[in-house]
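TICKET: design request
STATUS: open
ATTACHED STRUCTURE:
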């Protein structure tokens, strides 16, 4: 895949002195779902604002589908649809009218067939003549997505797309994102739901204090930075972990009945390590009654990288 968004040495310093972005480099690939994670104040919203042309950078460059966001603003912005976190739209407009109006803002000619397809995709067709004020919160969020898609963008930014919605609607939104990607739309989402990134993203970027701490393919991230935790339930208590098994970091519960080993690496190497560990325990006549294995989640890796919970 070729990059559709290229960010090079991007910096943003506000008049207050706040350095919101610090030498950010990022390529977003055409057709991928890219999740941008980070605690509040990490710089995620500023980065999106710069790419979308809403915030002027202090230095650095951004190109969108080959168009510089400053020198060729109109062409760059026409490639982008932005769904903000806030439900900001004219509440007394009908759904059809507000989506059609958004299309016209980008100089697109009327296309009722396309608008109908967008509304049907978002399960809004039966609400097309309804005033926005009469819609549920979830439906209002769908209207924001319809407005962002009205001018047929190639890139869709979703800022906390499932914040405040119920579990069923979250899964509907996930299915929608997959359909949009199948239609060729590149999706960049910010989220505080780590399970959302783990479920949806092809790649993950982690921001902290204005810096892009890491960008990695999701499965590679879990494989390279993850670990397997092995809990071994013992039949008889031990006073201390077996000293000759120091190759595996281990802790012993206060009652001496649970050994916990941590094995780094991917699934294959972890399985070999666990097998070797069990064999060694048997050789030492350490009698155990249970073995439980858990792999690091994306959330645990995120917490380790950032040092605090999002």
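STATUS: resolved
RESOLUTION: sequence designed for all positions
ATTACHED SEQUENCE:
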């Amino acid at each position: 895949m070729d990059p559709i968004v290229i960010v090079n040495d991007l910096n943003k310093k506000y008049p207050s002195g706040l350095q919101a972005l610090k030498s950010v480099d990022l390529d977003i690939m055409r057709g991928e779902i890219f999740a941008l994670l980070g605690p509040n104040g990490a710089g995620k919203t500023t980065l999106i604002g710069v790419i979308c042309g809403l915030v002027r950078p202090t230095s650095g460059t951004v190109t969108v589908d080959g168009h510089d966001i400053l020198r060729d603003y109109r062409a760059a912005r026409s490639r982008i649809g932005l769904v903000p976190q806030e439900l900001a739209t004219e509440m007394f407009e009908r759904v059809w009218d507000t989506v059609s109006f958004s299309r016209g803002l980008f100089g697109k000619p009327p296309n009722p067939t396309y608008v109908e397809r967008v509304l049907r995709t978002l399960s809004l067709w039966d609400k097309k003549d309804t005033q926005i004020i009469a819609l549920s919160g979830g439906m209002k969020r769908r209207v924001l997505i319809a407005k962002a898609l009205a001018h047929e963008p190639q890139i869709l930014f979703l800022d906390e797309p499932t914040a405040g919605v119920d579990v069923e609607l979250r899964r509907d939104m996930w299915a929608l994102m997959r359909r949009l990607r199948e239609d060729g739309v590149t999706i960049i989402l910010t989220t505080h739901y780590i399970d959302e990134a783990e479920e949806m993203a092809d790649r993950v970027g982690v921001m902290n204090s204005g810096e892009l701490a890491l960008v990695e393919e999701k499965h590679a991230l879990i494989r390279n930075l993850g670990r397997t935790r092995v809990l071994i339930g013992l039949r008889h208590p031990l006073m201390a972990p077996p000293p000759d098994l120091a190759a595996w970091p281990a802790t012993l519960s206060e009652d001496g009945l649970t050994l916990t080993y941590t094995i780094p690496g991917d699934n294959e190497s972890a399985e070999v390590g666990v097998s070797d560990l069990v064999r060694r325990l048997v050789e030492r006549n350490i009698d155990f009654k249970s073995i439980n294995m858990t792999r690091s989640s994306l959330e645990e890796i995120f917490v380790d990288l950032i040092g605090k919970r999002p």
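CLOSING REMARK: The chain has ten helices and 14 strands. Residues 227-297 form a domain with the Alpha-Beta Plaits fold (CATH 3.30.70).
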